[in-house]
Amino acid sequence: MSKPRKRHVQLELPKLDKNGHRRGGRRKGAGRPKKGFRASEKHGVRPATKASEPVHIIMRARGDVGSLRRHAVFLAIREATLVVGASDNPVPNFRIVHLSVQKTHIHLIVEAANRKALWKGMQAFAISAARQINAATGRMHGPVFADRYHARVLGSPRQVRNCIAYVLNNWRHHQADRERLKRPWKVDPYSSALSFDGWKQREAAGVYYKAPSGYAPPFVWLPRTWLLREGWRRYGLIDHLEVPGHGDE
């Protein structure tokens, strides 16, 4: 019985440049150069959005924008909420219900009829906010938000309750409540907390928090979904001193 013939494979020697260095292959610095900042959010398919389920949004700002917790910047973001909710040009089936502005990012809880309505509503808000912030800060032009927004669908009363507390009390999470403000505030002035009717202290006292003279709150909608309107209350009203735990931001 004859032995099988051995196959001789020609080994390809590595290619060298004129200095004798190896070319090609995987190495540090190889490949096409990056074109600047890359989004931290993966460019995957957005989660399915139902009209009955609110969505928690996080929008991160670029580092060169500076702190968003400035009066002029907050007024710029407020103007964007007015643009999105304007009665003469509203974004169909999209509503901002809760909002808070932190130094490097914005939290939103929104209602949207579907994925398309969510995308169009967030696009309108981001474009308007960027224009207003650039004008307010003297940047004049350039991107304000660093990458795609992060979206998480809230499907249960407990999730919604925890998220409302997290968004509206987020300043306590970042210890921004310890900063010196012009007036003493029980709730975050850089948010829609003043119009929220689910504070434990508000029900106990039987009164509403009063806005100081000259204060202009952001424009937000009354909730229409059962989860945001009453479902979350099954797990208790929210204390304005409650410090949220760990989360996305």
Please bin the fraction of helical residues. Answer: 25-40%
Summing up helix and strand content along with how strands pair, one would put the structural category as alpha+beta
The value of Rg in angstroms is 25 Å
Number of helices: 6
Q: Can you describe what's shown?
A:
By secondary structure, the chain is α+β, with helices and mostly antiparallel strands. It is 26% helix and 10% strand. Strands 2-3-1-4 form a 4-stranded antiparallel beta sheet. Strand 2 and strand 3 form a beta hairpin. Helix 1 (71-85) runs antiparallel to helix 2 (115-137). The radius of gyration is 25 Å and the shape is extended. The N and C termini lie far apart (73 Å). Residues 35-39 have low confidence and may be disordered.
Using brief descriptors, characterize the structure shown.
249 residues; 4 strands
Short description:
With 249 residues, the protein is an alpha+beta fold. Residues 35-39 have low confidence and may be disordered.
Which secondary structure elements does this structure contain, and how are they paired or packed?
Blueprint lengths: L54 E6 L10 H15 L8 E8 L3 E8 L2 H23 L12 E4 L3 H12 L1 H4 L26 H6 L20 H4 L20
Helix pairs in contact: 1-2
